[in-house]
Amino acid sequence: MRTNSLAFRLFLSATAWTVVILVATGIILSSIYREAFERSFDRRLGVYLRTLVAEVAAPEQSTDRGAPTLGEPLFELPLSGWYWQITRLGVAKPDVRSSRSLWDNELPKLAGDAATSTDGTRRGYVSGPDEQRLRMLERTVDLGEDGRYLIVVAGDPQEIEDEIGFFDRALLITFGMMAVVLLLITVFQVRFGLAPLQRISQSLSAIRAGTAERLEGRFPVEIAPLARETNALIDANREVVERARTHVGNLAHALKTPLSVVVNEAAGRPDDPLAAKVVEQADIMRDQIAHHLERARLAARLKVVGSVTEVVPVVAALTRTMGKIHHHRGILIDLDTPGAVSFRGERQDLEEMVGNLVDNACKWAQMRVSVEVVAEHAGGVASQPTVRLIVDDDGPGLSPAQRDQVARRGRRLDETKPGSGLGLSIVMELAALYGGTLQLGNAPIGGLRAELVLPAA
Fold first, then answer.
1. Residue 388 phi, psi (nearest 5)
2. Looking at residue 308, what DSSP letter applies?
């Protein structure tokens, strides 16, 4: 995915929300589990606390007043982290009894902001002997004439931390695997969801390459209007081009007959200077009309989307035709073509360009004309493939000044040769409209080389 692509934006946003939701959910679940395990731990301490309350409330049932029986060996191990303590209040010297695990130490009191339950039991964390962190429950019991007692039970909360740590690790592994699965699902959803756009892009490329004429297939309801409007635009484009061609043809026919009449009438008066001037200006008008109508026709033709022409059949057919036209002069035309190459344009434009070049070469050649077609692939990311057509002859050739002169519309170096002098200029203009070039140089066989470069499909 490219960083500026729609797919990357969707993936990035989905990934960010997935991470945020999973992290928030993990924190909430860890907090809930901690509170639940603390309540379970407090219930265990509460059992010991109630047992001590019962021992204090009914001392005659105790076998040893100094050591109430709780049934937990940890209260007997020194500094085990499990302690109990009973302190008689309201006397000059507080009477303190404690578990053997405390030795000579005493448990501190809870802070004033400790949590308190409905039965008066307070709970919280304190720092005990040797800076041990303890979870402690304390409760004050008033036995009337027997006095008031503060009963405290504390346990090592490391058990809580161990259990929470195990839960957090399991949660991290589970959510990590879930995140990977969700991200893979996100990638699939993005690619699946954007697949119709990829299909449209490929279809447009096929239309531009000439292998398709319209966007075909069924598209989702969100994309269908885009495909429908694109097809409508392509149809409208073709309709405009066809209408322009029709108008150009109608205009050409409408002007051709009046000009012919004017020229014929003027030619019938050879001694009239005015008639000679009319013939001269009518010829200029005819060339100008042909020039501008040709440009309009070519410009309209280039608006067609997806026109592609196979080069080799066109060039082969033209060389055979030119060979028949110039057979009386014994001109030999050599043809060298690759396996297959396509021109990104219309067939009649290619025929006009190649036909003008080959016909011009045959007119000036002594015995031989060489035609070569070369396919050149794209050389970089921005470059496009091209097709190079090279036409050589063994005629007299042209100097650099003459090459510049023949490129101008209507300029002819030899009036004895048939033609209007428009051939090479038409080829240059038509090639330029397609983004191509025409270069004139010296041919290896001694005459003129015409090198035409056009965009390939």
1. -115, 125
2. -
CA atoms of 207 and 238, how far apart (whole Å)? 13
**pLDDT tens digits, residue range 20-64?**
999 999 999 999 999 999 999 999 999 999 888 888 887 655 444
Question: Can you tell me the distance from the alpha carbon of 255 to that of 269, in angstroms, rounded to the nearest whole number?
Answer: 22
The Cα–Cα gap between 234 and 203 comes to: 13
Q: Which of 253, 278, 301 is the last residue of a domain?
A: 301
N-term to C-term CA, the chain: 27
Q: How many residues can be counted in the chain?
A: 457
User: What's the CA gap between 204 and 198, in Å, rounded?
Assistant: 10
The number of distinct structural domains making up the chain is 2
| Mean pLDDT computed over 399-407 | 77
Instruction: Tell me if 259 is assigned to some domain.
Output: yes
Three-class DSSP category at 129: helix
Collapsing DSSP to helix, strand or coil, 335 comes out as strand
Note whether 366 and 261 are same-domain residues.
no
User: Of 14, 25, 145, 18, which is closest to residue 88 (Cα–Cα)?
Assistant: 145
The rounded mean pLDDT for the chain is 82
- Contact call for residues 422 and 292 (beta carbons, < 8 A): no
- Cβ neighbors of 298 (< 8 A, separation 6 or more) are 349, 429, 430, 433
Residues 272 and 315 in one domain: no
Do 298 and 349 contact (CB within 8 A), yes or no?
A: yes
| Conformational region of residue 410, where left means phi above 0, alpha means psi within -120 to 50, and beta covers everything else | left
- The enclosing H or E element of 33 equals helix 6-57
- Chain segment 198-239, per-residue pLDDT in tens: 888 888 877 777 677 788 888 888 888 888 888 888 888 878
Q: What's the CA gap between 362 and 394, in Å, rounded?
A: 9
Written as one string, the DSSP assignment of 215-270 is: --S---TTTHHHHHHHHHHHHHHHHHHHHHHHHHHHHHHHHHHHHHHHHHHHHT-T
**321 and 435, same domain (yes or no):** yes
- Please identify, among 281, 301, 321, the residue that sits at the C-terminal boundary of a domain: 301
CB-CB contact of 141 with 151 (8 Å): yes
206 alpha carbon, distance to own chain's centre: 19
Q: What is the CA radius of gyration of the chain?
A: 50
pLDDT in tens, 91-135: 777 788 888 888 888 888 888 778 888 888 899 999 988 888 999
* Tokens 């720092």, residue located: 127
